[in-house]
Amino acid sequence: MDITVILCTYNRCQSLAKALESLAAQTLPSAVEWEVLVVDNNSKDQTRTVAEDYSRRHPGRFRYLFEPQPGKSHALNAGIRDSHGDIIAFIDDDATAEPTWLQNLTSGLHGNEWAGAGGRIVPAKNISFPRWFPPDEPRLFRTLALFSCGLEPGPLTEPPLGTNMAFRKEMFDRYGGFRTDLGPCPGSEIRGEDTEFGGRILAAGARMRYEPAAIVLHPVSPDRLRKQYFLTWWFDKGRSEFRQFGIPRDATWFVAGVPLSLFRRLARWTLLWILSISPARRFSCRLKVWTLAGQIVESYRHGHSRETVTAS
User: Fold this and answer.
1) Is 3-223 assigned to CATH 3.90.550.10?
2) Rounded CA gap, 302 and 275, in Å?
């Protein structure tokens, strides 16, 4: 088989139905064999009923897989193991794909030039950003699961988001699966499992392609346009970054197991936050403070855990 689309889901049966409907409407050449694998990560709602309904209505196109171990990365890795395609594409259960999405995203992956590809993720509806949102900082759009590198195709220099990405399956054989200490799970919203994998293969020298014509629509609910959502997201991102990259290379001195350099950066960005006049600039600095706070918390936990193991 040429392509497997993996869609992991947890307790979102209503948005899942919309996502599957958009996948059923995909237009690909008749010579391309493809499937959609719905990985149910221990949902308690009507997820299985919805998925199996699509399997009956579209025999051979949709499959259902139950993964009982909580955590999105566990579900992703289970889907990869069970996939039949030589190319694996990913989309989220609250997103919808334009009819040409899968064809545009994967068309360049049938050869050996590209290891993977990423497409654009755009808001499902027009949204108005608040005054405090810094519109000239593309990194902040990732908070809303939005992604764009412009309208021209070409090589990717940054990892795409899991809502709209694809890889040749051999990349997982070569570089491993998604890290299970990253990715949302019960009791934790630490993310980054998708960008960590993309960054891992880019760091290894593999090439990824940006396909702006591969478009996924993602909802942006009003609660995601609140300051608290951004602050929580970037705090968790700081924790994720420490798990990915560990102690900073410039760390020489430590306080309670935390690199002193992190406290210096925290003080610097706190001062910039206090002194900034522009609402957007102030909030941008504040997000940096929250990110560093997340790194410090995770660094402290890591150091405390290491001391406990050593003492025992």
Assistant:
1) yes
2) 33
CB 243 within 8 A of CB 301: no
Q: Give one word for 42, left, alpha or beta, with left for phi > 0 and alpha for psi -120 to 50.
A: left
- The domain ranges of the chain are 3-223, 226-311
Nearest CA to 292 out of 267, 312, 310 is that of 267
Phi and psi, residue 172, nearest 5°: -75, -35
Comparing 287 with 252, the larger pLDDT belongs to: 287
- 3-class secondary-structure state, position 19: helix
> pTM for the whole thing?
0.91
Pairing of strands 3-9, 87-90: parallel
Tokens read off for 276: 């900034």
Q: What percent of the chain has pLDDT over 90?
A: 82
* % of the chain exceeding 70 in pLDDT: 97
Mean pLDDT of 264-276: 95
**β-sheet bridge partners, residue 257:** none
Predicted confidence (pLDDT) per residue in 164-208, tens digit: 999 999 999 999 999 999 998 887 888 899 999 999 999 999 999
